[in-house]
Every structure is written in C-alpha cells, then in structure tokens.
Amino acid sequence: KAGVTQTPRYLIKTRGQQVTLSCSPISGHRSVSWYQQTPGQGLQFLFEYFSETQRNKGNFPGRFSGRQFSNSRSEMNVSTLELGDSALYLCASRSSGRTKESQYFGPGTRLLVL
Amino acid sequence: DQQVKQNSPSLSVQEGRISILNCDYTNSMFDYFLWYKKYPAEGPTFLISISSIKDKNEDGRFTVFLNKSAKHLSLHIVPSQPGDSAVYFCAATSGTYKYIFGTGTRLKVLA
What we know:
The structure holds 2 protein chains of 2 kinds.
Chain A: E1 5-7, E2 10-13, E3 19-24, E4 31-38, E5 42-50, E6 53-57, E7 64-68, E8 74-78, E9 87-94, E10 104-105, E11 109-113
Parallel strand pairs in A: 2-11
Antiparallel strand pairs in A: 1-3, 3-8, 4-5, 4-9, 5-6, 7-8, 9-10, 9-11
Chain B: E1 4-5, E2 10-14, E3 19-25, E4 32-38, E5 45-51, E6 56-59, E7 62-67, E8 72-77, E9 86-93, E10 100-101, E11 105-110
C-alpha cells in the first residue's frame, strides 16, 4: 500500500504570495489532518478533514484554509504569505476517523517565505 | 497554551543504556496518548500508544508509562541503539479526535 504523499516537497515563495499544498492519503483513508512544524513549536494542528468536511480546526488565522475532495485528497492554501509561515507542513491520514488510531504522516512540504 | 509539553529539548544516552523521554499534559479530557519518532526529511512515524484505562504498554524495546494523577507520561527505550537517534514527539487526543503534539525531544544515542 502506498504511503501518504505530499507535493511539492520544497517550495520558495515571497511575502504576500499565496501557496497551495497537496496531500494524497493512504488508499481507503478518509481523514486527513494538516500540521505546521517549526523549530521550538513542535507540530501545531491546523485542521482535519473527514469525508470532505472540516471536522476540527486549530488556532491559525483565516489565511490558512483547506479542502478535501471526494477521493479524500486534500489541499491546504495559505494566502498573503508572511515570513513566519516558513515551516514544514505535514499531512497525516487515518482510516475511519472515528477511533483513536494512529495517524500516518507524509514526508512534508518545506515552505520557505522570503 | 501548550496543552502537551516536552520540557527536555534534547537528551543524550550511551548505547545499551535506557532512554527515558518525558511528556506532561494539562487537559484532563485527554484519554489516548501516542509517541512518534521523526528522522530528518521524513514525516513522523508511529511508535506506541496507550489508553487512559492503562498505566503501561509495552512493545519490544519500547514501553510507555502513564500516570494520570500527575498528568505525565514517559517513553522508555531499552536498550538504546544508535538507530534510535531521532526527534520524539508525544501526542494526546480525546473524544474530539484532535491530536495535540508536544514540541519534541531530540534523542542522541552515542555509540
């Protein structure tokens, strides 16, 4: 079974631009969560999608948004990029979303904002 | 407000000895806890978990202990191996299925 894939792996943007990151979960998994990892902050939860609906949301500004498609693939969008948005963005999938099972993470997209 | 805390950013241990990684939480609603390991340029991988109805769970060299009254969990790795060198994250969740992660502890196992 293929793992969670994320594209692109690396991205360089400038302040004020917007960016879209993509995540393909493990086949059959319906829950996709997004996290931001920065040094000293660990993994900060952004949001979770389950069956195309946002089920949970972290404490991030409205510039961060996401969506999930009917095939469970998910995209995350960040508008009006700021220098502080430079981070590793990780997505994670799990199957049913109803049990406290482990999540499976992708390799992440490293975003650098100049 | 950091609901899950890992107060030691780094830890060095000799190969063959025990590694103990600690994690504290503040939210008493958390009822499931997990440990993940992360190598550079890779996503975190699941190691071991524990439900709040237990106080210990073992899987090979890895054991997780949960002290609910102290809101504290720890991961023991025995014996430690150089391949265990990585960043370890603890995470907690409740009925909302929202996973809250700690800031991570970088473990270095010295050969």
